[in-house]
Design goal:
The complex is a heterodimer. By secondary structure, chain A is of the alpha/beta class. Chain A contains six helices and six strands, in the order βαββαβαβαβαα. In chain A, helix 1 crosses helix 4. By secondary structure, chain B is α/β, with parallel strands linked by helices. Chain B is globular.
């Protein structure tokens, strides 16, 4: 039976942007699916062999795959498999350029080849920390719908999306976003710009 | 300052250059980053998790030369080194700049550094090429002014570490 396992690979899975991306995805995906947080996998009894497809949803971390997802992937690589599930990727980074996600995607392609999985569709999101809160969210939603369709029809698709903004405008918008986040904790531009590391 | 970060014990290193600090990550308690962004928005420059990582990332920032000794997994740093890298984001600000034509985070007081990576466990050309491309990206975010990667087998690692540190002794 065809079924999809969706993995939230974010280190802050319960309150992550990845969770929001998954919510959008499941609005478009009409097949059966289960969800799992990579953070909880060691406690889980889920058997990946029950699934024909696995969708990994996660943020770029230090230019590659976040450690909770690495841990999940290592466990999954050792799971007995009677079939070859297809791995799909929905990755986002906070930078404007979705191409900054490419190395992480290629690491997963390597993983798939190394450990006997097929590799399917990819969606790389740039400006992924903020785009869902902007008028450009429709661009992401459109591509997520295409991602869902590609998984259901077994037609692998590689897509990318970001805010269609000049870098200078993105920088201003990003600064405003982070200042708002800092202000919630009483921080100012000056305090957030400190050059000190671990000093009072 | 010189810094050595290793994912395995280095008991055989008996002679170190002056101003050199060594961390054996297998003996450090470093919890995974929880993605709270506290080091950017709540306590800028400080991680809210008070384990061993806050002792190490200021030294990463201050080092002019850094030697990474790490197992490679699927073309990337394996979990011990990667966990430390993820916990080192307090050395960056939340704010974004344009660097080498791309958007990247502004660095705090991070010294440009020469990075040497002794990588083991990457046995195929494909994985080594992937790792080289990863480090090329890391360089933009970790202030590497230059970097060298040596791919090794576990049985040649000790010799390579001694050789590299010996060169530091003479430079």
């Amino acid at each position: 039976m065809e079924s999809l396992l969706i993995i939230n690979g974010s280190p802050r899975a319960p309150r992550s942007n990845s969770k929001r991306y998954i919510e959008l995805f499941t609005q478009s995906f009409t097949g059966s699916y289960d969800q799992l947080q990579a953070l909880n996998y060691s406690k889980s009894t889920v058997n990946v062999d029950d699934y024909s497809d696995i969708l990994l949803v996660f943020p770029l971390y230090a230019d590659s795959i976040p450690t909770p997802l690495m841990t999940f992937l290592k466990i999954m690589s050792q799971s007995p498999k009677t079939r070859q599930p297809t791995i799909h990727v929905l990755i986002n980074c906070g930078f404007l350029e979705p191409e900054q996600n490419i190395i992480a995607v290629e690491m997963l392609q390597f993983y798939a080849k190394q450990f006997g999985f097929s590799f399917g569709s990819v969606l790389m999101v740039g400006s992924g920390e903020a785009i869902l809160n902007t008028p450009f969210s429709f661009l992401v939603k459109r591509r997520i719908r295409k991602l869902a369709a590609s998984i259901q029809t077994h037609n692998p698709l590689c897509q990318s999306v970001t805010m269609p903004l000049p870098k200078s405008i993105f920088l201003s918008a990003s600064t405003k976003y982070w200042l708002t986040m800092g202000a919630k904790h009483g921080q100012t531009k000056e305090t957030m710009s400190t050059m000190s590391i671990e000093k009072e | 300052m010189n810094l050595i970060l290793s994912d395995q014990p280095l008991h055989f290193l008996t002679s170190l250059p002056s101003d050199t600090v060594v961390y054996d990550l297998s003996q450090q308690t470093i919890h995974p980053c929880v993605g709270c962004f506290g080091c950017w928005t709540k306590t800028p420059g400080k991680c809210v998790i008070r384990d061993d990582a806050p002792n190490i990332y200021p030294k990463i920032a201050a080092s002019e030369r850094i030697l990474y000794i790490s197992h490679i997994w699927c073309g990337g740093f394996d979990t011990p080194m990667k966990t430390l890298m993820e916990r080192s984001i307090p050395v960056q600000q939340a704010f974004i700049r344009i660097h080498q034509g791309e958007t990247h985070h502004v660095q705090r007081a991070v010294v440009p550094k020469e990075a040497i990576i002794l990588a083991y466990g990457a046995d195929t050309q494909e994985e080594q090429t992937l790792f080289k491309r990863l480090v090329e990206r890391n360089a933009k975010n970790m202030s590497f002014s230059s970097w060298k990667i040596h791919f090794l087998s576990p049985d040649t690692l000790q010799e390579a570490i001694l050789e590299e540190v010996s060169q530091w002794n003479h430079s």
